Amino acid sequence: MPSTTTSRFLRPAALIGAALLAVSVAACGSDEGSSATTPSASATASASAAAGVLGISDPWVKAADKGMTAAFGTLVNDGDADVTITKAATEVSPMELHEMTMKDGKMVMQPKEGGIVVKAHSRATLEPGGDHLMLMNIAKPVKAGDELSFTLTFADGRTQTFTAVAKPFTGAQESYAPGHGESPMPEMSMSPAS
């Protein structure tokens, strides 16, 4: 029995010590990320939320040779206030915030009026067939494995940069109507690639 009593009392002390060590290490860290380590998605979300910006988990870009493509991922808002993304930018292409919606019985892509809102203490998913960050006219091919840097601008003027890796994806084949950016808007077929 003494070993059970001893371990029962040591566990809380060990947990307190580990928590103090973690706080000490975090307090000594800089705002600049280390290129030697890559935090997990949940660690990134937590660290970003503590800094007052969105966490971004599993960011990726659909690989494409030309034309349009899109960036996706999960946006995490651990803060107490809603966050609105009003603009996105990358060096590879002009960008727009887009959504998919039903019009005249068809699923169409259109600019997201009012931006992309991530409610306080919640997540918003950027995904094919839903809200996404649209690259309008890529200047060079985006090959699988390429890493692209994106900058989000929020309604309050803050900005945040993140990196997303390009992946092949055939689950949604975009079919753009003539005059994208004007009327009519592009349509998206959800059929698999042939």
What can you see in these coordinates?
This protein is α+β, with helices and mostly antiparallel strands and 194 residues long. It contains 2 helices and 12 strands, in the order H-H-E-E-E-E-E-E-E-E-E-E-E-E. The strands form 2 sheets. Strands 1, 2, 3, 4, 5, 6, 7, 8, 9 and 10 form a 10-stranded mixed β-sheet that branches. Strands 11-12 form a two-stranded antiparallel sheet. The N and C termini lie far apart (68 Å). The N terminus and C terminus are likely disordered.
Any descriptors?
194 residues; alpha+beta; 10-stranded mixed beta sheet; two-stranded antiparallel sheet; 2 helices; 12 strands; 38% strand; globular; disordered N terminus
Layout of strands and helices, then pairs:
Layout: H1 2-28, H2 41-50, E1 55-62, E2 69-77, E3 83-89, E4 95-103, E5 106-111, E6 116-118, E7 122-126, E8 132-135, E9 147-154, E10 159-167, E11 173-175, E12 187-189
Parallel strand pairs: 1-10
Antiparallel strand pairs: 1-2, 2-7, 2-8, 3-6, 3-9, 4-5, 4-8, 9-10, 11-12
